[in-house]
Amino acid sequence: MAHDHHDHESAQHAHDHTHVDFAEMIPMLEQEAELFSPLYTEAAGWLRDQRSETGLIVDAGSGPGVISCLLAETFPAARVVAVDEVEPLLERARARADRLGLGDRFSTLRAELGSGLGDVEYPADLLWASRSLHHVGDQRAALAGFARALAPGGTLALMEGGLPTRYFPRDIGMGRPGLQSRVEAVHDEWFGRMRDELPGAVAETEDWPALMTAVGLRHTATRTFLVDLPAPLSDETRAFVVTSLTHRRTFLAPGLDADDLATLDRLLDPDDKASVYHRPDVFLLTAHTVHVAVKPE
User: Using CA atoms, how far apart are residues 117 and 83, in angstroms rounded to an integer?
Assistant: First the structure.
């Protein structure tokens, strides 16, 4: 599962138009999660302030484990289980935990989020799901599975929604102004098709607190966290913008007009002085929203 919208659906590759191959995206998923780590650190600290006593944390749709490990560091007394259905992602998560010295209280579990969380060893005190639920056909059923996996008094933290990522001013001095808004509109169409084609897809109004309430949880808080990396960007951030735009150029090409494709090609050409590689006005600004609910005791 991806943590990106995603953007986390920027971290999605299209095979057969809407199939998402997460194993293929490991470098990009790690690059994004590491770059956005201040956001996740802030969110994890906010959750820690709400519940300091945490025995078991489950990261549902953990991807390569960047956030799983961050949660383990934020809650130093907790065990962490990273749950994902893609084994290569879990391998990366285990390797990261071992590298960071967290391996003695870190484990992984291969399971599909849509069919519950498999054999989690005991009920979770904190269940974190970052931009993974929207890859499940029946989101309400998956949320009910999350609720069952929680201990009485346990917390569900669901990161869904927020704002699209922006990299450029509206007018970048070439092509028609508003490129990113048009790319985002094409992405929204793609995302709708991706959801429609998921196994067991059920249309839901994306009112996450209402869905949490519908599965028996008590919504307690919603907060949005910002990633604000102004120009001039670090080389690391600039490299991520290139990766992200290249990705979108590849899988959204059928929905974009020739002029916008030509502009994207210039932005991604290292020999073009107006490209992401060279221009001074590239920034990274986005917002992710976390909805928190508690299981009644």
Answer: 7
- Quote the Cα angle for 201-207-213, to 5°: 95
Structural contact between residues 89 and 22, judged by C-beta atoms closer than 8 angstroms: yes
d(CA 118, CA 40): 25
19-20 and 14-15: which strand pairing? antiparallel
3-state secondary structure of 29: helix
Burial (Cβ within 10 Å: 0-12, 13-18, ≥19) of residue 200: exposed
This prediction's pTM? 0.90
pLDDT tens for 129-144 read: 999 999 999 999 999 9
Single-letter residue type at 33: A
Instruction: Note the pLDDT tens digit of each residue in 101-119.
Output: 999 999 999 999 987 787 8
Given a contact cutoff of 8 angstroms between Cβ atoms, the answer to whether 7 and 164 are in contact is yes
d(CA 80, CA 41) in angstroms, rounded, equals: 16
Distance CA 133, CA 122 (A): 21
Phi/psi of residue 194, nearest 5 degrees: -60, -45
Query: What is the C-alpha to C-alpha distance for residues 43 and 289, in angstroms, rounded to an integer?
Result: 9
Cβ atoms of residues 133 and 139 within 8 Å: yes
Question: What phi and psi values does residue 168 have, to the nearest 5 degrees?
Answer: -135, 160
Residues 6+ apart with CB under 8 A from 157: 43, 47, 126, 127, 128, 129, 290, 291, 292
Q: Tell me the pairing of strands 284-294 and 218-229.
A: antiparallel
In degrees, rounded to 5, the angle at the alpha carbon of residue 2 between the alpha carbons of residues 225 and 38 is: 30
Give the tokens for residue 195.
Answer: 């959801």
DSSP string, 166-196: E-S-S--SSSSS-HHHHHHHHHHHHHHHHHH
